[in-house]
Amino acid sequence: MTKFTKWFNNLTEAIAAGMLAAIFLVFMLQIVLRYFFTPAGWTLEFIGILWVWVIFFSCAFIVREQDQVRFDILYLAAPRKVRQIMSIIAALAIIGGMVYAFMPTWEYIDWMKIRKTATVRNPFTGNKIPMRDVFVIYSVFMIAVSVRYAWQLITITKYGPPKTELEVVLEASENDDEEGPKS
Q1: Angle CA(59)–CA(60)–CA(63) in degrees, nearest 5?
Q2: Which of left, alpha, beta for 5 (phi over 0: left; psi -120 to 50: alpha)?
Q3: 22: Cβ–Cβ under 8 A, 6 or more apart, which residues?
Q4: Secondary structure class of 161 (helix, strand, coil)
Q5: Tens digit of pLDDT per residue, the chain (183 long)?
Q6: pTM of the model as a whole
Q7: How far apart are CA 15 and CA 79, in angstroms?
Q8: What is the DSSP-derived secondary structure letter of residue 124?
């Protein structure tokens, strides 16, 4: 499982890096076109589409739980058992919110197929891109977050709440003390 996880993490990071590189290259193209040729309106819209995809794709597959912004003063002050209950409630709330909102969100995204991009066209067909294709990444984000928190719920139930940063640091320093001085 860890080999697959490592491969999947590398793949998702490569995809996100590719999208960021595409944003940069299109931005540079936009500058060249603006100052030396005729400005192209599609570049600005394409950068916006890629930005939406980078944000939701990265938040779904790359950003780790410990990298999220938290307001955890009460959580850190609570005993381990209370932290476990708080973690379970938080995971259930996130899963519940995502599941509850999924169908209305998907209906709206699907409805967006009637609207098209203003200037960006599919290079293979020449047709303008349906806005549904632009925002479908949000539904992928919702599913990925739901699965992530369902997995976290199982882990919390089995093994307790995630270790706090202080617990991780203390555990690391204890391991360093046990190994003794390095020569």
Answers
A1: 45
A2: alpha
A3: 50
A4: coil
A5: 689 889 999 999 999 999 999 999 999 999 998 888 887 788 888 999 999 999 999 999 998 877 777 777 888 888 889 999 999 999 999 999 999 999 999 999 999 888 888 888 888 888 888 899 889 999 999 999 999 999 999 999 999 888 777 777 888 888 776 665 655
A6: 0.80
A7: 40
A8: T
Task: Write the DSSP string, 14-29.
Answer: HHHHHHHHHHHHHHHH
Encoded tokens for 52: 């939406």
Tokens of 148: 């992530």
Is residue 70 within 8 A of residue 162, CB to CB? The reply is no
Question: What is the identity of the amino acid at 145?
Answer: V
Beta strands of 39-153 (E only): which ranges?
116-121, 128-130
What tokens were used for 141?
A: 């984000």
